[in-house]
Every structure is written in C-alpha cells, then in structure tokens.
Design brief:
Helix 3 packs parallel to helix 4 and helix 8 packs across helix 9. The protein has ten helices and seven strands. With 304 residues, it is α/β, with parallel strands linked by helices.
Length: 304
C-alpha cells in the first residue's frame, strides 16, 4: 500500500495479536504512526500467557513503513488510559484514528451454555473486557481525536449488525458483548458525526488469528490442513485482511458516508478493491448466510 497515511496518528487499542496486530501493521504500511497497546509485553504476560507482545506488533508496524510505538496499557484502568492519551497528545499533538479492538474473552465463555449454567464471574469479566474497556478508551481518547476534522473511530466486533440481529452468537455473554460493541458504533456515530468525525463498527470474517491456528493445530502455511475437520474454514482470512479494511477507511476522504454503520472486511474489499495476502477477497458473512448456516457443503470458490 502506498503511504497514504503519512502524518496520521493512530491508536490501536488491543494490538497484541489477532485483528489488532493485522490492523496496526497495515496502518503502518500506509505510513501512519501507530500506538499499539495491550497487556502482553516482553517482560510480562497477560492472563492469556501467550508469546505475542505489543513490542512485536510495534516492530511489524515499523518494518511495514510506519512508526510503531508500544505502550503497555490495561484498558480497564482509566488512569492508565488517561496517561496513554496524554502521552499521545504530548508526543504527536493529534489522534486521527482510534481502533477499539480490546477483547480478551476467548477463555471466558462456554459454547451453547445457558446463562444460568454459565460461570457468572467469567461472564461478567468477559463483559468488562469486551465492553467497558471500549467505553473507557473512547471517553479519554475522543477529545484528542476531535481536535482535528475528519477523525475516525472503529469499533471492532464479531458479526455484522444484520447477522447478529438474527443469530444467537455462542452464549449469552458473547452475544451481548458483540452486539453491545455494534451499538457503540451506532451511538458514537450520532455523537461524533455533527462534530466532524466518523464512527463505524467493523468485523473480520473467520479469522486465522494466532489463537485460531493453534486451536486447529496448524500454521498460516498449513492452514488448509484444518479443512478435514472443519470444512467451512475454507472461507477464513488473515488478520491483515481486516487491517487493510481499516487502512482503506482511514485513507478515504469520504469515510463519513459510513458513519454509524456496521461494516465487514469482505464487504469493504468489494468496494475499496484490496485483497487478502493471497490475492483473494473472502466474503465470510455472505458465505455464512448462504452456505454454512443453510447446511450446504463447504465451497468457498465463489466467495473468495
């Protein structure tokens, strides 16, 4: 990608791995200065106890052509988020893109377990990590973002508004968390639009994150080996695909046309013309509705 975001400053909150890492790297490829935050550093791991770190993500940003700046931050702690934003203001004097990608709930929900049987502490912790963190971060970051016209806020979730409206998503807590984030973008659109900024919700498709690849026991190079056990994984995409969606939105001078809306990586690829790393354009949410949810045989040939 050409350096269309030179001089722009982004904060990717929750950039240790997965979508956040892919987004940060692609913003860097477009020339942006990117602050990457999370709880996993080279000196200290989060409760995930995984090897990925925010320093590694920042290095990817810089290697891609931007400037990656790692800042350890627990987005459940308002004082830490306030200090982060103050640092960005002191060092850059502006914030052009805020990506709320904080999540942290993979180990906290139980599939197809009703509310009254679900571990309550885990469920409430999930909601705090997935919803409260976004509100805290926006509360502190939006005054800086609004200093300049044209700021962009992206609320990362799982599922489009249309899909999540009609589909039960795994568990009460997971469903509530992902739907709440969609509504956040809608509400922020009403609050930011009249003030010259834009807010959208964005979902990747079935993403080949580090955790997902580990779940299937494959690597990015061997991911197709997982199809024998999960054939619909054929529609999957890399985290860089949604990263390219974010970079395209951030570079669009008419991004306000999307204000308050729910968007997907696959849908935006058809509009902006970007591809995944392999040159394909997977459209996962159309595939889920038209193939997987109808019980049809796995075949992504017309959806990539």
């Amino acid at each position: 990608m050409s350096a269309t975001l030179d001089g722009k400053v982004a904060l990717v909150a929750g950039a240790t791995r997965g979508a956040g890492r892919g987004i940060a790297a692609e913003l860097g490829a477009a020339g942006a200065t990117v602050y990457v935050t999370g709880r996993s550093t080279r000196e200290r791991r989060s409760e995930y106890n995984r090897a990925e770190t925010i320093e590694d993500t920042a290095d990817l940003v810089t290697a891609a052509g931007g400037l990656g700046i790692p800042v350890p931050t627990d987005h459940l702690v308002p004082s830490q988020v306030s200090a982060l934003v103050e640092r960005i203001a002191d060092e850059q004097g502006r914030l052009d893109v805020l990506v709320n990608d904080i999540w942290g709930g993979e180990n906290l929900f139980a599939w197809d377990t009703p509310l009254w049987e679900h571990d309550l502490d885990d469920g409430l912790r999930l909601l705090r990590l997935a919803v409260e963190t976004h509100a805290i971060t926006s509360h502190h970051a939006l005054p800086l973002l609004l200093r300049n016209e044209g700021g962009l806020v992206i609320e990362m979730t799982d599922g489009t508004a249309e899909y999540n409206r009609d589909t039960y998503r795994v568990s009460f807590f997971y469903d509530l968390a992902k739907t709440a984030v969609l509504r956040m973008a809608f509400a922020l659109g009403h609050e930011l639009g009249p003030r010259g900024a834009t807010a959208v919700a964005l979902t990747p498709g079935w993403m080949r994150s580090e955790i997902m690849l580990d779940h299937f026991g494959v690597t990015e190079e061997s991911w197709r080996d997982a199809l024998k056990d999960s054939p619909h994984f054929c529609i999957s995409e890399t985290p860089f695909y949604v990263g390219r969606a974010v970079a395209a939105l951030a570079a669009d001078p008419e991004v306000s046309r999307w204000n308050g809306q729910s968007l997907s990586s696959g849908g935006l690829a058809q509009i902006y013309g970007f591809t995944d790393l392999d040159g394909s354009r997977p459209d996962a949410w159309r595939y889920l509705v038209e193939v997987q949810d109808r019980g049809a045989p796995a075949d992504a040939s017309t959806y990539r």
